[in-house]
Amino acid sequence: MAYSRVFDLIYHQQETRPKKDALACKVNGQWKTYSTEDVIRIAGQVSKALLNLGLEPGDRVALVATNRPEWNFLDIGMMQI
Fold first, then answer.
1. Is the pLDDT of residue 54 over 70?
2. Which of 29, 42, 50, 74 satisfies CB 3.0 to 4.6 Å to 55 for a cystine?
């Protein structure tokens, strides 16, 4: 399958090989994992929140953050719009 959008990959993963630990990070010395379903759900919530704040397709958004799962949620959520 050919992909034209980066965020399509998480949906492809959900359809073909959903994972319990699609993303992970350490919180207070313990690993916290996010499943493929979690990533899709949270990214969808981000998209909805940004739309409610007035973001529209074609608007520019800058994301400056450390390497952590939340970066991916924001990135996917913004791209989906």
1. yes
2. 50
